[in-house]
Structures are given as structure tokens and as C-alpha cells.
Design goal:
By secondary structure, the chain is mostly helical. The chain has one domain. The chain is 47% helix and 9% strand. The protein contains 5 helices and 2 strands; from the N terminus they run H-H-E-H-E-H-H. It has a two-stranded parallel sheet. Helix 3 links the parallel strand 1 and strand 2. Helix 2 crosses helix 3. InterPro entries: AB_hydrolase_fold, Hydrolase_4, Polyketide_trans_af380.
Length: 116
Amino acid sequence: MQYVWRLMREGFMALAFDPRFHGESGGEPRRHESGAEKVKDIQSAVDHLIARPDVDPSRVYVLGVCQGVNWAIESAIADSRVRAISVVAGHYLTPEVALMCLGNQGNVDAKIARSR
């Protein structure tokens, strides 16, 4: 939450949320890791923000911390409404973590191919 409070002090509208399967959010199984679902959650957060009259849709940014850097990057690739990202202390995907988070080797291979 330290980032949220700092951003708010700097004049940004800031939104923090628990992705599905974690914390106060719903979803089963609990603590399930799904990168695709986290990107969808970020897109839903963007939907919520740009529906607000006090948010300029051309100034929506995503901040990712630790493993969240992966989903911040993916959300910017998937959604042109995300105008910029900032990443902090990245925990980038190792082959094992990539397989767990992306679901199957086909998804991992597609991500690698897309990056070339």
C-alpha cells in the first residue's frame, strides 16, 4: 500500500486490488496463480477507473511490483488504454514459474515467440 499512498500524495488517482483467488477477492481455488486472469483483473480495474468522471482515460498507468511486473507488462500489451507502466523490483518468470503461471508450454512458447 506504500505505493498507493505515495501516488495519491503526488496527485494521482490510485487503485489497489486483490486479484481473483487472492486476499479479499473471490474465486476458487484459493491462491491459484493465473497470469491470464491477473491481466483480466487489471483490465477490469481499467474499466472501473475510466468509467469515473474524475479520471482522464488518456492517463491510465499500471504499476507492477515483484511478480506483478509481468502482469503490468502483459496488460499494456493486451490493452491500449494502458498508456504507460512502471515496474518495481521485478520477479521475472523463470521457465518453471512461467509454466505454472501461463498454464501450459504452448502459452510459454507463444510468449517467447511474441517477444522476438
